[in-house]
Amino acid sequence: MRYDVVIAGGGHNGLVAAAYLARAGRRVLVLERLDHIGGLTVSAKAFPGVDARLSRYSYLVSLLPTKIVKDLGLSLELRRRRVASYTPIGDTGLLIDNADPARTAASFTRTGSSDLNAWNDFHTALSRLAARVAPTLLEPLPSRTALRKTIDDDTAWHDLFERPIGQVIDDRFGSDLIRGIVLTDALTTAFTGTFRVNESASQLATAFDRASRGLIPDLPPSEIYCHSLTDDSIFGPSLRETGAQTLTLFGLCMPARLFTTPEAKELAVARAIASINTVLAEPIENCLLTTPDGQPCLEAKTPLDLERDVALPGGHIFHGDLSWPYAEDDHGPWGVETEHPRILRCGASARRGGGVSGIPGHNAAMAALG
Questions:
Q1: Nearest to 229 by CA among 83, 35, 13, 63
Q2: Are residues 146 and 72 in the same domain?
Q3: What is the pLDDT of residues 5-56, one digit of tens each?
Q4: Does 192 fall in a domain?
Q5: 257: part of which helix (H) or strand (E)?
Q6: Containing domain of residue 136, as a range?
Q7: Could you tell me if residue 216 is inside a domain?
Q8: How many domains is the chain built from?
């Protein structure tokens, strides 16, 4: 049988591309080396004898555009988290409550920060910019001039497209704690429901300096998410009744080059646990569920594990450095084109790729159909 399109890889982007192409009447073949499709989005039972299906690679679908969901007729329920983040500091902590500005303001006061107005102004500008840029991600790449016109905010453009984000944050915020929170939002994907551990600006700088010298940070900054608080259907009935919860930790300042020996992974895990314990009332080891044979339910993935297991270069979920969402000389109209006229990128390495968004899969399909 002959096919119009062959897609290498049955991850979420490959499947999005295949669905759009098939709905357009094209004959599509999807090739997948694993025994299942879905790529890193698939949940699995990570621990023997424990009835919990976990997202082992911590992928969320909060970036999946509504347009793709509607276009493909997906049966999908997304659940919002009310609390954006909580950052312990001393005997208190900074709570960012999306539904209660007064509660957030009171938390700023308790932590002694005077950055509330700067915080509100910055996030209002970011939200407005994101709302204007988002629709362009499913269209041919705009020019730099056209995108700036779409954003229609010279201050936001200058701060977010023309200046290092670190300089902008230093200029706008006075608190070491708040600077760290905004820096990690710029570094990661700003998921809601984040429990932040040792992520002040100075702690991030210390950890980065140590990692840049080839050493695992003594006190790794990290972010924790408890997905089961929002969706406990990942547990079997009996496990759900016990009140068990899942935790996913993202360790920062842990590049692939640090993990050249098995001992490095063991040390990184030990220090990540020690870092968590600095902000807890009791050691987290005391709270870990165990398998029927007594092993702790803890799974760690280094960047090199991700490269080996799921072909992420250096563990990089974007496959490389991020790029601007506008056209440049070395990209075609959709940002998926390659030097080979019949080969398109439809994954995270495409311009505007990365994250579970389906955007590069959509754009590759549109480029092929065009």
A1: 83
A2: no
A3: 999 999 999 999 999 999 999 999 999 998 989 988 888 999 999 999 998 8
A4: yes
A5: none
A6: 116-172
A7: yes
A8: 3
* Contact call for residues 232 and 180 (beta carbons, < 8 A): no
Q: Tell whether 240 and 265 lie within a shared domain.
A: yes
**Nearest of 200, 193, 172 to residue 98 by alpha carbon:** 193
- C-alpha 285/C-alpha 289 separation (Å) is 9
Q: Does residue 304 sit within a domain?
A: no
Supply the Cα-derived Rg of the chain in whole angstroms. Answer: 22
Q: Is 16:68 a contact under the CB 8 Å cutoff?
A: yes
Find tokens 């939002």 and name the residue.
185
**Contacts of residue 292, Cβ cutoff 8 Å, sequence gap at least 6:** 48, 49
Q: What is the 8-class DSSP label of residue 161?
A: I
CA gap 83, 369 in Å, rounded: 41
Q: How many residues does the chain have?
A: 370
Residue with tokens 């976990």: 54
Q: 360 near 336, Cβ under 8 Å?
A: yes
Percent of the chain whose pLDDT exceeds 70: 98
From the list 284, 297, 355, the residue with the least C-alpha distance to 54 is: 297
Q: Which residues neighbour 294 within 8 Å (Cβ) at sequence distance 6 or greater?
A: none
Amino acid sitting at position 61: V
Taking residue 196's Cβ as centre, other Cβ atoms within 10 Å add up to 24
Instruction: Tell me the DSSP string of 29-50.
Output: EEE-SSSSSBGGG-EE--STT-
Cβ atoms of residues 16 and 361 within 8 Å? yes
Using CA atoms, how far residue 120 sits from 50, 116, 153, 182, in Å, is 43, 6, 17, 12
In the predicted model, is pLDDT for residue 116 greater than 90? yes
Amino acid symbol at 227: H
**Residue 85: per-residue pLDDT:** 94
Q: Which two tokens stand for residue 233?
A: 């259907």
Residue among 309, 348, 346 at smallest CA distance from 57: 309
- Cα separation, 303 vs 314, whole angstroms: 6
Structure tokens at 125: 């500008």
Q: Is 370 helix (H, G, I), strand (E, B) or coil?
A: coil
pTM flag (> 0.90): yes
